[in-house]
Amino acid sequence: MPVWRIGSARRSVSHLFEPDVVEANARRVAERPEMMKLWRRTVEHPFGTVKHEILRNARLLKRGLSEAKGELSLSVLAYNLKRLTNWKGIDWTLAALRA
């Protein structure tokens, strides 16, 4: 995995995808741009909800990749529990969590 250094040695930006994977994805998007529009409508709404309702439009409090992943995981868990409660009701959700 390539790592680029920015500023001091303590900061780095990781590039997580291989170039051939990025190129293949770009080809798929170019072939069917309507799918990208559908994907954006479907996927980006939960991210906006997590940012505005769960995180209260704040930045992550933790520093470092593993800590940020943990904080985001808790935020997504809260989002999923909220959706489950709205869908099934609080009594069903609490019974399922106790089981």
Compact summary:
This protein is mainly alpha-helical. The protein has helices at 19-31, 33-54, 65-88, 90-98; strands at 3-5, 12-14.
Task: Explain this structure.
The chain is mostly helical and 99 residues long. The chain has one domain (3-98). The chain is 69% helix and 6% strand. It is built from 4 helices and 2 strands; from the N terminus they run ββαααα. A hairpin with a 6-residue loop joins strand 1 and strand 2. Helix 3 (65-88) crosses helix 4 (90-98). The mean pLDDT is 84.
Brief descriptors of the model:
single chain; 99 residues; mainly alpha; two-stranded antiparallel sheet; 4 helices; 69% helix; extended
In terms of topology, how is this protein built?
Blueprint: E1 3-5, E2 12-14, H1 19-31, H2 33-54, H3 65-88, H4 90-98
Count of strand segments: 2
Report how far the terminal alpha carbons are from each other.
Answer: 42 Å
Oligomer: single chain
Q: What is the count of distinct domains?
A: 1
Structural class: mainly alpha
Q: Please estimate the helix content.
A: 55-70%
Q: Rg to the nearest angstrom?
A: 19 Å
The count of helical stretches stands at: 4
Averaging pLDDT over every residue, what do you get? Answer: 84
